[in-house]
Automatic annotation (TrEMBL):
<dbReference type="GO" id="GO:0046872">
    <property type="term" value="F:metal ion binding"/>
</dbReference>
<feature type="domain" description="4Fe-4S ferredoxin-type">
    <location>
        <begin position="34"/>
        <end position="64"/>
    </location>
</feature>
<comment type="similarity">
    <text>Belongs to the nitroreductase family.</text>
</comment>
<dbReference type="Pfam" id="PF13187">
    <property type="entry name" value="Fer4_9"/>
</dbReference>
<feature type="domain" description="4Fe-4S ferredoxin-type">
    <location>
        <begin position="2"/>
        <end position="31"/>
    </location>
</feature>
<dbReference type="InterPro" id="IPR017900">
    <property type="entry name" value="4Fe4S_Fe_S_CS"/>
</dbReference>
<keyword id="KW-0479">Metal-binding</keyword>
<dbReference type="InterPro" id="IPR000415">
    <property type="entry name" value="Nitroreductase-like"/>
</dbReference>
<dbReference type="InterPro" id="IPR017896">
    <property type="entry name" value="4Fe4S_Fe-S-bd"/>
</dbReference>
<dbReference type="InterPro" id="IPR029479">
    <property type="entry name" value="Nitroreductase"/>
</dbReference>
<keyword id="KW-0560">Oxidoreductase</keyword>
<keyword id="KW-0408">Iron</keyword>
<dbReference type="GO" id="GO:0051536">
    <property type="term" value="F:iron-sulfur cluster binding"/>
</dbReference>
<dbReference type="GO" id="GO:0016491">
    <property type="term" value="F:oxidoreductase activity"/>
</dbReference>
<keyword id="KW-0411">Iron-sulfur</keyword>
<dbReference type="Pfam" id="PF00881">
    <property type="entry name" value="Nitroreductase"/>
</dbReference>
<protein>
    <submittedName>
        <fullName>Nitroreductase</fullName>
    </submittedName>
</protein>
Amino acid sequence: MSLLTIDNAACKGCGICIQACPVSIISMSDDKTPFVSAEKEKRCVLCGHCESICPDSALKHNHLPEMAPIRREKLKEVTPDNIAEYFRSRRSIRAFLPKKVEKETLEEVIDIVRYAPTGVNRQMNRWVVVSDSQTIRQLGEGVIAWMKAMIPVNPELAKRLNFAGLVAAFERGNDVICRNAPHLVIGYTETAYSTGAKDNTIAASHLELLLPAFGLGGCWAGYLMVALQFSPDLKKVIGLNDSYTVHSALMVGYPKYRYFKTPQRKEAQVNWM
Ligand SMILES: Cc1cc2nc3c(=O)[nH]c(=O)nc-3n(C[C@H](O)[C@H](O)[C@H](O)COP(=O)(O)O)c2cc1C
């Protein structure tokens, strides 16, 4: 079966699908019908832009499942003002209610994140959701053990990231690593996947931004993320071997407190050219 099916009665030959294709494999036939030649088909990245941009529903991509129509009425409330308020009011949440989030809610958030951009549309992001409190504790302790081991090995890094202070705080009972979060969402990809770090960081950032819409909050668990990148033993705790690399780690839960003000941030540094 060819890559595209064109409904000739509906197609006006506008060529928008040709312009939208990121890999430029769609051509226009002499009779004004878009087509992909057999030798170009394998370059398709399955992004679906050709079908989803067609204003006349005249194009069907035969290697993709049925597409859901965009519900424009839902987007009416996404005004620049509303979304700016939403983005600016996002805060890193470090104090959580002692309550687990329903699995369905976490599933829903992770499901939305599938729509984040990925290099060449490869969609290779994977996630580990840790909800077992003992495992979360084990990971926190593992990070501390890794930091202790790193202090003599890489004193410069240890000093820059204040490992000694973090170890002391943790040993005093202050969970500065996972903040007693009820869940950890850890993002990873296959190690061999070249755009894994960027794809997964973008997706994790989408995930963090989505949380407030679900009444949730989160915070990057940077120390955990770095320790998981450097310590194969710690990576084993979440069931991963060398074939996989961790790129993100978020603490997630219901926020214990609300914020009432937005702290100022540095001016944007932009070179306008
Ligand atoms: C890559 C990265 C790693 C981070 N790691 C931690 C962390 O380990 N622990 C923590 O409490 N906050 C961590 N944060 C949160 C930052 O401290 C926070 O984003 C910053 O202070 C600004 O606050 P805001 O997110 O509320 O605007 C991290 C943020 C990023 C982007």
